[in-house]
């Protein structure tokens, strides 16, 4: 009835002339057809006293619906900045996750594709649940994917808030938003109980969906669900009153065994979205990252009281191609912007020596953590009374959070609850400190309190800090939490173990952790964090041997994979750039011929992503043999403008290139 109230007089007149309507609905529409811009008091009374059942087996009255709408606006409207949300009003329409989205870490996806999705179709948010053509039907199962920090939860809140205000999708009668963080707190649920969790103002236990009007059930954050969805072995359930395991409940809802009348919208990081069989997904969309103008607006809003600082931060980001690509992710852009602004603010304090402009991931996060530990946040005055005891307490908290982060990473766990905090010795009273609130976010659910790191990379950096510190004294494998393993002595042994684990991990979820671990061996990072989280100059005894471990990863593969590229990025984090610089210089002088060894091929693949030499055109003329071309194929996919002339290619190479051009991920636009 609330949806009917929003009809204009003209729309109501059109409904009058449409298909036969139930008697009471006809009465409402007849009144609406003659109304002004607002509903009259008699009409409100009529609706309030009506026994009309909308969509549920219980009467739904206007006051309770209004209470739900107000609740949604209150819970979802907080923190939504209209100017920053324009990007989310248009989504990319995709056929499904690409190979790279299914196999690679979120950060590697963005780095490899340079933040440019290979998609030309888009769909406005207000049409997300409408048919694409006059002969199609609305999607029942919709999935929206996006990397960590891109804005999936913000998109969900934007949609819910806009719907509750009556601005979009007036054909949907009820929107019931839930997060997987909340579902994690339950072992078993029935479909009825699930509805009550989402709509407590109106629905009582014992009701089910029925009728022809539309309900949208939103399930936000599949990647944060504690149990993988198993569609092959899930027990079939068609009884809405029966309590079953929550993962089985979700699979039965998606399959249509339960709540068949409801549309379902799932948001997820790309790798987790592949749990849902593609045959069950009616529509898949993707959230794109910032364009340049949007990045500028975002930073202007961050530093709205200091536009000069905003311009300087943006200038620094644009000067670093790798950083610029990653800053298309809003969550990462916020961390980077904060760190660079902190550096700029304190660069004058380092007048005795040249200030260290943050260039690598590890340096960005080192500045961020130094800012966190010192309490010197940009938006407020420095906490002047930071006693030694306060700083030591903060360091201890970082250590405890690091252990939680590391073992959470191993279990693919990104949401934690009070029992997790207590198990890792974290004092809950400290979680209200300024430091904690910048690293760990808190969300109160109906059943419990959930904690999660402000961005995936924050968890990974904390995990690397813990591993780095623990590896210096641990005598057993740190990857075995119980401690029962063969003895493993010395930092280098533990470093080698971490690299091997990352190489063997099929889901690639340890790649950025190892990159941060390598970065902690950088002289610049050691200098930044010495006295805070690291001991000055302690890295010197490990660095050269760690370089050898990483270089050993570059000589073993016939084809250059993303693993080899990540090893090159690890060397860059450690400030060991000799190989990359030599290959880059050869590219500039067009003298690559004869020097493309396996290690140099890995360096070349890395440079294809980060070097300004390849920005306008990737020139690989007169330097490729059949074997070299074959080893680089998977990395050439992402070169927009590729020049391969004068390489004496024969039919076998042309067949290889033909196979590349037909790959779904291929971004080549010009080929010479």
Helices and strands: which structural class? alpha/beta
In the predicted model, the low-confidence regions spanning at least 5 consecutive residues are 35-61, 381-385
Roughly what is the average pLDDT, rounded to an integer? 86
> Could you tell me the number of beta strands?
15
**What share of residues are in beta strands?**
5-15%
Largest sheet: 7 strands, mixed
CATH architecture of the largest domain: 3-Layer(aba) Sandwich
Enumerate the strands of the largest sheet in spatial order, edge to edge or round the barrel.
2-1-9-3-8-6-4
Distance between the termini: 62 Å
Give the class-level CATH name of the largest domain: Alpha Beta
Structure explained in plain terms:
The chain has 672 residues and is α/β, with parallel strands linked by helices. It has 30 helices and 15 strands. The strands form four sheets. Strands 2-1-9-3-8-6-4 form a seven-stranded mixed sheet, sandwiched between helices. A three-stranded antiparallel sheet has the order 10-12-11. The longest helix has 23 residues, at 388-410. It is globular. The termini are far apart. Residues 140-272 form the NACHT domain. This is NLRC3 protein. Keywords: ATP-binding, Cytoplasm, Leucine-rich repeat, Nucleotide-binding, Repeat.
Q: Quick gist of this model?
A:
With 672 residues, the chain is α/β, with parallel strands linked by helices. It is 47% helix and 9% strand.
């Amino acid at each position: 009835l609330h949806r009917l109230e929003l009809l204009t007089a003209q729309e109501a007149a059109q409904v009058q002339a449409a298909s036969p309507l139930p008697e009471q609905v006809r009465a409402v529409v007849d009144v609406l057809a003659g109304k002004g811009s607002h509903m009259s008091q008699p009409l409100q009374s009529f609706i309030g006293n009506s026994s009309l059942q909308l969509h549920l087996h219980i009467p739904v009255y206007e006051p309770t619906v209004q209470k739900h709408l107000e609740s949604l606006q209150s819970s979802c409207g907080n923190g939504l900045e209209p100017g920053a949300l324009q990007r989310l009003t248009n989504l990319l329409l995709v056929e499904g996750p690409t190979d790279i989205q299914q196999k690679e870490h979120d950060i590697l996806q963005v780095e490899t594709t340079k933040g440019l999705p290979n998609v030309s179709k888009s769909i406005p948010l207000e049409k997300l649940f409408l048919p694409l053509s006059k002969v199609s039907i609305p999607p029942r199962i919709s999935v929206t994917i996006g990397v960590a920090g891109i804005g999936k939860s913000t998109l969900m809140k934007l949609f819910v808030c806009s719907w509750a205000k009556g601005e979009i999708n007036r054909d949907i009668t009820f929107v019931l938003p839930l997060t997987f963080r909340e579902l994690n707190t339950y072992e078993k649920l029935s479909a009825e109980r699930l509805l009550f969790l989402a709509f407590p103002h109106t629905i009582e236990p014992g009701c089910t969906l029925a009728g022809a009007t539309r309900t949208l059930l939103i399930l936000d954050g599949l990647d944060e669900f504690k149990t993988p969805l198993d569609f092959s072995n899930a027990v079939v359930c068609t009884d809405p009153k029966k309590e079953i395991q929550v993962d089985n409940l979700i699979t039965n809802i998606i399959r249509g065994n339960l709540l068949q009348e409801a549309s379902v919208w799932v948001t997820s990081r790309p790798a987790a979205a592949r749990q849902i069989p593609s045959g069950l997904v009616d529509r898949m969309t993707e959230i794109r990252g910032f364009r340049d103008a949007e990045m500028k607006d975002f930073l202007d809003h961050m530093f709205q009281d200091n536009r000069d600082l905003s311009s300087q931060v943006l200038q620094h980001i644009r000067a670093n191609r790798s950083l610029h690509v990653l800053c298309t992710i809003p969550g990462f852009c916020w961390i980077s912007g904060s760190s660079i602004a902190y550096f700029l603010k304190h660069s004058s304090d380092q007048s005795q020596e040249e200030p260290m402009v943050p260039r690598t991931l590890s340096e960005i996060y080192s500045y961020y953590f130094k800012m966190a530990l010192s309490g010197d946040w940009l938006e407020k005055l420095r906490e002047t009374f930071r006693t030694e005891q306060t700083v030591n307490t903060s360091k201890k908290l970082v250590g405890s959070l690091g252990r939680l982060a590391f073992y959470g990473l191993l279990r693919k766990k990104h949401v934690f609850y009070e029992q997790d905090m207590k198990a890792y010795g974290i004092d809950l009273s400290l979680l209200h400190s300024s430091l904690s609130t910048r690293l760990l976010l808190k969300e109160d659910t109906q059943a419990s309190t959930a904690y999660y790191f402000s961005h995936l990379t924050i968890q990974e950096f904390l995990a690397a800090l813990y591993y780095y510190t623990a590896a210096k004294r641990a005598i057993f494998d740190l990857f075995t939490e119980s401690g029962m393993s063969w003895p493993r002595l010395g930092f280098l042994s533990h470093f080698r173990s971490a690299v091997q684990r990352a190489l063997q991990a099929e889901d690639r979820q340890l790649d950025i952790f190892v990159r941060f671990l390598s970065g902690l061996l950088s002289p610049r990072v050691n200098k930044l964090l010495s006295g805070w989280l690291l001991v000055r100059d302690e890295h010197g005894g490990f660095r050269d041997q760690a370089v050898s471990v990483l270089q050993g990863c570059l000589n073993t593969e016939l084809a250059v994979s993303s693993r080899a590229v990540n090893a090159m990025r690890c060397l860059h984090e450690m400030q060991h750039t000799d190989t990359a610089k030599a290959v880059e210089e050869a590219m500039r002088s067009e003298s690559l011929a004869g020097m493309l060894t396996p290690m140099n091929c890995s360096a070349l693949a890395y440079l294809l992503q980060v070097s300004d030499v390849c920005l306008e055109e990737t020139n690989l003329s007169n330097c490729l043999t059949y074997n070299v071309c074959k080893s680089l194929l998977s990395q050439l996919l992402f070169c927009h403008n590729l020049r391969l002339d004068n390489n004496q290619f024969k039919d076998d190479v042309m067949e290889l290139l033909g196979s590349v051009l037909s790959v779904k991920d291929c971004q080549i636009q010009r080929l010479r």
